[in-house]
Amino acid sequence: MATSPAYAQTSDVLQRYKSKVSVIPLGINPNSYPEIDAGVSEKWAESVGRDFFLFVGVLRYYKGLDVLLEAAAQARHVKVVIVGAGPEGERLRKKAQQLQLDNVIFTGRIDDQDKICLLQLCAACVLPSHQRSEAFGVSLLEGAMYGKALISAEIGTGTTFVNINEETGLVVEPGSPESLALAMQRLSDSDFARDMGAGALKRFEALFSGAGMGSSYEQLYIEQGSCVQ
Predict the structure, then answer these.
(1) Complete edge-to-edge strand list for the sheet that includes strand 149-153
(2) What residues does 106 pair with on adjacent strands?
(3) Domain 33-210 has CATH 3.40.50.2000
(4) What are 211-228's pLDDT values in tens digits?
C-alpha cells in the first residue's frame, strides 16, 4: 500500500512490484477533533497573534526546519510559529537565537485543542520537509481541513499530492530558504491565501476523508479475499 501516486512512482522498491501496489491516501475525520473553547482561542490570539505561518510536527532532521528558520531570517516581516518537540528542538532554538529571529515562536508540545486554535488563527501551514522520510504530511491535511493555504517542498512523496501548486498553496524547492521565503511573502497577501485555503479545503473534502480511506481499504480487502478464494 502506498499513500500517494507520487510515492509509488518514485520508490525504487515499489516500482519492482508495480502489479502488487495499490494507492489509498491517508484520511482524517474532522469529528474526531475536540470542540474549541473560546477562551483558549483568545489566549493564543493574544500570545502569538493571527495570520502567521504554522509548522506542526516532531522536530526531526528531515523536517527542513533549518530551512524555515533561514527563510524567516530573509522575510522578517512574517511571523512563524513552530509547534512540537523532538530531538532537534534545542539546536533549532539556539539557531533562532543566533539569527536573532524575533519573528519565530517555539511553543513546544501542546494538546489538540491548542493545536486547533493555532490552525484556525494562522494564515497558512508550512511543511518544509526536504527528504523522502516525509512520506505524506498529515499536518498538511489538518491545515487543509481548516481551509488554510499550504506550503510544502517537492520531494516526490505525498506532500505534493496533498498540496497542489497554485491550487491549494505553493510548492517550493526543497532545501531552499530563498524559495520558501518567497512563498511566505506571496501568501502574506490575505486574498491569495484565502483563495488557496479554499482550494485546500475542497481537495480535502474530495480525497482525504477518514470515511473514504476506510471504504477504500474495505473494498481492497474484499477484492483480495475474492482472489484468494
Answers:
(1) 104-108, 80-83, 53-56, 124-127, 149-153, 169-172
(2) 82
(3) yes
(4) 889 999 999 888 887 665
